[in-house]
Amino acid sequence: MLGIVLFWVLAAAALVFGYLVFRLDSMARVTFALLASFLAVACLVLLLGLGYLGAVIALMMVIEMVIMAVFMIMYMMNPAGLMPMTMVHNEVGSAAIAIGTFVVLAAGILLVDWPAREGAPPPDPTYALGEALMGGQMLTMMTLGVGLFATIVATVVLATDRGRYGDDR
Amino acid sequence: MLSLIVFLPALVAAVLLLVPATAPRRVFTGAWLAVSAVDLALVVVVWLTPGSGFRFVERVAWMPTVGISYHVGVDGISLPLVALTAVLFGACAVFSLRETRRVKGYVALFLALQAVSLGLFVALDLILFFLFFDLSIVFMYFLIAGWGHGERARAAALKFFLYTFLGSLALLLGFILLYLAAEPHTFDIVELAAADPLAGGGAYAGLALLAIGVGLAVKTPTVPFHTWLPPAHTEAPATGSAILAGILLKMGTYGFVRIAMPILPGTWRQYAVVAVVVGVVSVLYGALVALAQTDVKRMVAYTSVNHMGYVVLGVGAAGIIAGTDDQARQLATTGAVTQMVAHGLITGALFLLTGVLYDRGRTYDMAAYSGLAARAPVFAGVFAVAAFASLGLPGFAGFIAEFQIFTGALASAPVATALAVAGILVTAALFLRALQRVFLGPERLPDAPGTPRPFADLRASEAAAIVPLLALATVIGILPRFLLDAIEPASRALVELVAR
Amino acid sequence: MNENPAALLPELLLLGAAVVGLLMGAWLPRHRQWLVRLLAAAAAGAGLVATALAAVRPDEVVFGTSYAVDTPTHATRAIVLGAVLVALALSVDATAGHRRETEFVVLLLLGGLGTILLGGANDLLLLFAAFLLASVPFYALAGWDKSALGTEAAMKYYLSGAFLGVVMLGGVTILYGVGRGVGYGALRDGLAGAPLTAAGVGLVAVVAGLLFKAGAVPGHFWVPDATAGTPPAVAAIVTTIPKIGGLVAVYRLFVVAVPPDVLDRPLLFAILAAVSMTLGNLAAFFQNTVQRLLAYSTISQAGYAMMAVAVAGRAELAQQALLFYLAAYAVTNLGAFAVLAELPRARTLNDHRGMARRHPALAVALAVCLLGLIGTPPTAVFVGKLAVFTAAVDGGYLWLAVLAIVNTVASVFYYLRWLAPVFRGTEPDPAAMTRAGTWGAVAAVFCACLTVVLGVLGGAILPSLAAVPAPPHGE
Amino acid sequence: MTLQLFLLLAAGLFAIGLYGALSQQSIVMLMMGLELMLNGVIVAAAAFWYFVSPGGVDGQVLIVVVITAMAVEMAVGFAVVTAIYRARQVDMTDDAADLKG
Amino acid sequence: MLWWLVAVPLLAGALLAVAGRRADRVAPAAGVLVATGALAIAIAAAVTRPAVDAPLVAGIRAGLAVDGLSALMVVTVAGATLAVLAHAVGDPELRTARFAGFMLLFAGAMLVTVTATTLAVLLMAWEVMGAMSWALIAYRWWEPESVTAGHTAFLTTRLADVGLYVAAGAALAGGAGSLALAELPGANGPWLHVVTAGLVVAALGKSAQLPLSFWLSQAMRGPSPVSALLHSATMVAAGAYLLLRLAPLLAATGWAAPAVAWVGAATALLMGLVAVAQTDLKQLLAASTCSQIGFMVLAAGVGGVRGGAAQLVAHAATKSLLFLAAGTWLVLLGTKQLGELRGAARRHRLVGVTFTVGAAALAGLPPLSLWVTKDLVLAAALDRSTVLYAVGLAAALLSAVYSTKAVWWVWRPAQPEVIAGGPNGTRAPAGRGRPAGRLGDAALVGLAVLAALLGGLPFVTAGARPSAWWELVLSGLLAVAAVALTWRVAARMGEPRVLASWLGVERAAHAVVVRPVLAMAEALARFDDRVLDRGVTAAARATVGVARVLDRRGEGAVDGSVRGIADGARALGRLARRPQTGQVHQYYAQAAAALAVLALVVIVVR
């Protein structure tokens, strides 16, 4: 029962905060709305018994949103939300496509005969996850690692202009 | 041997590309002349070597998984065309001795064209055939665009490329259908002809023939796929036109006798009447439209449509079994092949002659000239001979061809053939009119800028290029046996293949 | 577990070269960075050797069921490594001595690595991870020169990739939901009894990400912008290398993971191929900047290649056609871009006028490559097209072959629009005809020769591409 | 708590994110939209794991992959924004539309 | 030997023609020499009757043979050629290699025609003859009228030649695979009729029988020696010869023989009337040729081969004589108008006398040649049909009338002021001296002798006897009467326009055939440029809307096509580029929409 209540609350929170991301007119508030939405989802993941992943999501998103807030303030002309801002285009079309997508997805979700549940959660999902990461999905993780390495190189290349040889062009 | 004949020009072209363009132009034209002479000599050797069926066969596996091999050989149908190619390119080499514009590229392109033309006629593999077919388009495009008459030449060249390339791809589609129909899959012409993979007919076979037929019809060209031809001819240089009409058009008709008929005999028989109708329409339409032209080169171009129409009529009639005997069908087939040779020689000469006309007067407009016979009697005489040869006068090769086609085709398609015979009347009229306008009557020369010099008669090098072509056409017209002895066994074999 | 690192030798070589190269770059003086390039080339060359050695061994699936080492993987490795080598060569003139030369090389290696993994991935999660690895370095490469257009190109490339990546992840999730697994083997079982609607949507979503890699409709929007905004060397890389991995991945996904009756795959890909080739060709018609023109041409080329995907499993030639086509396309396209890299100031068609006079060898190489892209024999793409068309007709898609033929003819138009000024006798523009160096020309001539050699001797390669990856459980 | 409810939530988040990605001019806001979409994917992945195949571990790995992807895309996105801001002082997609046609 | 017979004139002619101006000096002598040689070989061949053949095309051989009919013909042809060439030596305008060469080729082709044993060879020679007639009639190529006349001759006869081509095909179809003339009657089924019809059309066209007579009128533009040869032993005679040769075939069909007979009779009569109405001497002679050939055709139709052949030979001698004489006057006096030729015979007695002999023979006056030969034909006709006979007799009377008319004019006392060159005079300057020379005179005399005596030929060669002596007497008496009557009324004879213009067939032919063909050609050319060439264009344009087609129509034809495709493609291209707006959010929207559609397709189509 508590689970159901929690679900509804968290779901509503995730959606509402998600919606607010594009409705608020201050960068700081937007960022925190997004964070709130993520945290709600993290709680939902916790609710499903994936404690470790829920915690990871929460932690990651907090850090990410902080960085994002910094970026917002660095690059956007309205850091503190002092002025109302509307920086949207094709709002109607976007809304139409988004609502259409939702309707179609929802229809599919409700109509599709989803597979029945098979098996039970392992006693320690986190352990199983670790085993998988070091086992069957090792290559995936290695690839993701290399991807992170590539991301570092890429972000350095993109974000810094001077390079390691100084200013000479 | 055949590989040597085919690749010798390509090899020399590659070598010439390494020679700096600043070298004297005699180096290039001389090399071309020498290669043509050697090729011609080799072809004569091949011709004189006795044998039957496919000779000088070379076969090397090329892409075995997809049934492609480097397979070449000559028989009585391809050998005359190989010889024609060697002769006509030789004539163009002689004619080009006076060429001054970017000679290196010019000669290299012609040598490349020579190689692919020879290659096409000896190819016994569909993909090899297609390779040469396509390359001929590419090289001819560059020739027209680069050495044609200015800006319009580029438009004409583009049209030529797009149109004939579409045709070639239709052809490729047909080849793929043939390949898939054969078991085991192969692109080999001889094997396909032996296997007759689509003997059962049906829509698939019809589709294959349609694709191949359209592809070849564009190249031939037959009505209504001919509209690329007049602009391409009008804008091309004289030698380019001669090769285009003399050799490249033959690739289409050769495809009919080498591919469409032997590999799809049943389907060919089924739809032969279509070929007959297309042929007759091309004959009459080409002749009538040519009659209305005021541009002499355009006129000659349209007569090509007319002459190729006879070929299509002949091959079509050879596919109609009912009411005919072997002799008639063989005559039609032999006539069609003979017509290819005859048209190559005669129209090649005519285009070179129009090149002379343009060189002197800077225009192809017939109305700009009159009474040239007084200034240039030799030119007028040679042109008249070529014109009469082209209108099918006995004593020239064209008659031997057309007579056989008419005689052989009448039994199977009486009405169509009778209509086609009327085409010779229109051809006669149009050539007489052209002769009258340009050469006869009171003398008048164009006074366009850039033509202050007097209208010079045929020069030695021009005559040396053109006269042998006409002489050969005359020899074939009077003593055709040496040619027919080569063609007839092959056409008999072809008729048997079609009739199976 | 079969975690044999030797099976991934080519991949490990690339990774090692990338890491070592980055470290080396940190220590090398600016004008010695060519050592990094040399290292990369050595790694790629060694990778090719390793690929050749691996190809004679029997197929295997390593790291659980996540990575297949089989014919398509070998082919992907060979093509990508070869393309990396050529890209290393043709980029010398533009990047040598640049302060980010090392990063350029490292990013190229990482992107190549990701592309190879994409081709070999046998698991949806690895597929997505490889997608990330194959994307991120190329985003950075697009913005590598930091010019206004280059960064815009990087932005669009990135935003396209991010969006379609999200869609792809959504698709992965749906497939996981309905198929109870992410490994291709498990999926094949799971999808057999899955609700078809959901499976179809999931597959389309996954394919969306791969189409982004392949630069095919509807994931093609970045292609013209990213190609036009970047230096030729980068444009050559981003239009060539990711396509290989993307198309092989699509092929593998549908051959291995998706039971034939889940959705009408041939129709889906026939539509995608048809739209891609037609749109690419039409949009290329009247482009005046050569890079944009080539960009659209690559979209249409992806369409031709996708024909083989459409008939995979229905025509015996499909896999050979796809792999050979990709190789032929890579060589030919790189050759065309190499010419651009050699003449970086000639941005428009008109800038190329009179090129045959000034640089005859380069002009001939360009002509060979462009005619090759058309599919004129005896170039490699002709053999590829022949195989693709044959496969399409064999697979019952005659209309697609006909459409491809019409498209090919249409494509002639714009390629010739480019070639015509090249061979026109007019006086060239000296500024536009300034050569950047020699490596671009070397690469161009090499590619032109290779495309002809592949075209003539391609038959020898075709049989070695025939072995189709076996569906799991010996089906 | 049913699979359908979770999936509806996921779809809702996905749709909201899609709306943002489509409608926002600022690159950073646009990235937020993409993040929200991934947020939905996480919900769906977790739900599928719990309701369809809790016995397996693929769903969990999937969530890990999604989180990594989020991080990677965020990082690259910020780098791109930095680069384009340096090069032309814009952070709007609409302002960076020189490449077209 | 037979090869030599045809090869000598053909090769010599070809050599002379090719050599062109360089050989002008030796050409007249060479021409006469070759013609003499040819005559010698012809006589030898006529005696030895050789036959040769060689393979031509599959199953069809090229055969030559001399039998009774062709023996007569080869000698006639060679003789006429010799006479004409000998006479032409005198005309400075004709002392060219071109003239001599073409004349020899012309004669050589005729020799092949008359000796041919297969249709293939016959057709070859037949067509070459037509081409040579073009070259000779248009000998004065700088005069547009001459060239046009040559065109008319060649095209008209080639129109008829179509019949030969059809006949050849039909013969093959009908089972006569060797195309041997002797086998043609054996063709089976309907093909027999096709063969016959084709041959008849070809022969009638060549022989200028109705309704294809008009080309002969125009052919008078050529030099007179050309006319002399063309009207006597070659060209027009070839048609008659062919019909005589194929009389068995005509008989085999049932309908062909009467048809041919009637055409011949009608031509004889109507062209006789036309001849009577002419005021131009050469036109009169030309029409009379048609008329006389009509008798030969009639002979072929009624089976009187011997009479027809005799008529052919006698007519050849007579007509070449008359044309040479007329040509002499034309050269000397610069006119061929009867009114201006008054006194011509008085001033040039030899020409006058020989002309009169020829005219008398033409008139059918006993005991000259044509009286006999014509009556052999008429006798044969009488065996078949009285009406035919009556028509023939009337035609014979007409020949007496027009011959007399011509003679009457030339013997009238001279009117010097007219002779100097009247309004109708041709360009040839009057009084160029005596061109004919001794050789020319000899030719005239020799021909006159032959014209007078050849009537005995049939009796000599074949021992024929007049079948109905009363008929001979009757026609002789009628001829004398007609001559006498005409002599009295010659000055007052009218020239009805219909007859003077050769029945107006040419104008009709122009209206019915030439102009429609030209118009059709123009129309098709326009169609080709506008419609067919732009079909591709239109297809491309249709995709963007029909309106554009109308919009661009005004553009040049050649450019328009490529540009047309370009326009269509450009529109499509623009359309294809439109999605590429440069705006990322629009890319997103499009990609999302496209993916949605794809998903839909995947779901719906399965």
UniProtKB/TrEMBL annotation, chain A:
<dbReference type="Pfam" id="PF00499">
    <property type="entry name" value="Oxidored_q3"/>
</dbReference>
<feature type="transmembrane region" description="Helical">
    <location>
        <begin position="95"/>
        <end position="116"/>
    </location>
</feature>
<comment type="similarity">
    <text>Belongs to the complex I subunit 6 family.</text>
</comment>
<dbReference type="InterPro" id="IPR042106">
    <property type="entry name" value="Nuo/plastoQ_OxRdtase_6_NuoJ"/>
</dbReference>
<keyword id="KW-0472">Membrane</keyword>
<feature type="transmembrane region" description="Helical">
    <location>
        <begin position="6"/>
        <end position="24"/>
    </location>
</feature>
<feature type="transmembrane region" description="Helical">
    <location>
        <begin position="31"/>
        <end position="50"/>
    </location>
</feature>
<keyword id="KW-0520">NAD</keyword>
<feature type="transmembrane region" description="Helical">
    <location>
        <begin position="56"/>
        <end position="75"/>
    </location>
</feature>
<feature type="transmembrane region" description="Helical">
    <location>
        <begin position="136"/>
        <end position="159"/>
    </location>
</feature>
<comment type="function">
    <text>NDH-1 shuttles electrons from NADH, via FMN and iron-sulfur (Fe-S) centers, to quinones in the respiratory chain. Couples the redox reaction to proton translocation (for every two electrons transferred, four hydrogen ions are translocated across the cytoplasmic membrane), and thus conserves the redox energy in a proton gradient.</text>
</comment>
<keyword id="KW-0874">Quinone</keyword>
From TrEMBL, chain B:
<feature type="transmembrane region" description="Helical">
    <location>
        <begin position="271"/>
        <end position="292"/>
    </location>
</feature>
<feature type="transmembrane region" description="Helical">
    <location>
        <begin position="79"/>
        <end position="97"/>
    </location>
</feature>
<feature type="transmembrane region" description="Helical">
    <location>
        <begin position="336"/>
        <end position="358"/>
    </location>
</feature>
<dbReference type="InterPro" id="IPR010227">
    <property type="entry name" value="NADH_Q_OxRdtase_chainM/4"/>
</dbReference>
<feature type="transmembrane region" description="Helical">
    <location>
        <begin position="413"/>
        <end position="435"/>
    </location>
</feature>
<keyword id="KW-0812">Transmembrane</keyword>
<feature type="transmembrane region" description="Helical">
    <location>
        <begin position="238"/>
        <end position="259"/>
    </location>
</feature>
<feature type="transmembrane region" description="Helical">
    <location>
        <begin position="106"/>
        <end position="124"/>
    </location>
</feature>
<feature type="transmembrane region" description="Helical">
    <location>
        <begin position="201"/>
        <end position="218"/>
    </location>
</feature>
<feature type="transmembrane region" description="Helical">
    <location>
        <begin position="31"/>
        <end position="49"/>
    </location>
</feature>
<dbReference type="InterPro" id="IPR003918">
    <property type="entry name" value="NADH_UbQ_OxRdtase"/>
</dbReference>
<feature type="transmembrane region" description="Helical">
    <location>
        <begin position="378"/>
        <end position="401"/>
    </location>
</feature>
TrEMBL record, chain D:
<dbReference type="Pfam" id="PF00420">
    <property type="entry name" value="Oxidored_q2"/>
</dbReference>
<comment type="similarity">
    <text>Belongs to the complex I subunit 4L family.</text>
</comment>
<keyword id="KW-1003">Cell membrane</keyword>
<keyword id="KW-0812">Transmembrane</keyword>
<dbReference type="InterPro" id="IPR001133">
    <property type="entry name" value="NADH_UbQ_OxRdtase_chain4L/K"/>
</dbReference>
<keyword id="KW-1278">Translocase</keyword>
<dbReference type="InterPro" id="IPR039428">
    <property type="entry name" value="NUOK/Mnh_C1-like"/>
</dbReference>
<keyword id="KW-0520">NAD</keyword>
<feature type="transmembrane region" description="Helical">
    <location>
        <begin position="61"/>
        <end position="85"/>
    </location>
</feature>
<keyword id="KW-0472">Membrane</keyword>
<keyword id="KW-0874">Quinone</keyword>
<protein>
    <recommendedName>
        <fullName>NADH-quinone oxidoreductase subunit K</fullName>
        <ecNumber>7.1.1.-</ecNumber>
    </recommendedName>
</protein>
From TrEMBL, chain E:
<feature type="transmembrane region" description="Helical">
    <location>
        <begin position="69"/>
        <end position="90"/>
    </location>
</feature>
<feature type="transmembrane region" description="Helical">
    <location>
        <begin position="228"/>
        <end position="247"/>
    </location>
</feature>
<feature type="transmembrane region" description="Helical">
    <location>
        <begin position="442"/>
        <end position="462"/>
    </location>
</feature>
<keyword id="KW-1133">Transmembrane helix</keyword>
<keyword id="KW-0472">Membrane</keyword>
<dbReference type="InterPro" id="IPR001750">
    <property type="entry name" value="ND/Mrp_TM"/>
</dbReference>
<feature type="transmembrane region" description="Helical">
    <location>
        <begin position="29"/>
        <end position="48"/>
    </location>
</feature>
<feature type="domain" description="NADH:quinone oxidoreductase/Mrp antiporter transmembrane">
    <location>
        <begin position="116"/>
        <end position="394"/>
    </location>
</feature>
<feature type="transmembrane region" description="Helical">
    <location>
        <begin position="162"/>
        <end position="182"/>
    </location>
</feature>
<feature type="transmembrane region" description="Helical">
    <location>
        <begin position="194"/>
        <end position="216"/>
    </location>
</feature>
<feature type="transmembrane region" description="Helical">
    <location>
        <begin position="102"/>
        <end position="126"/>
    </location>
</feature>
<feature type="transmembrane region" description="Helical">
    <location>
        <begin position="284"/>
        <end position="305"/>
    </location>
</feature>
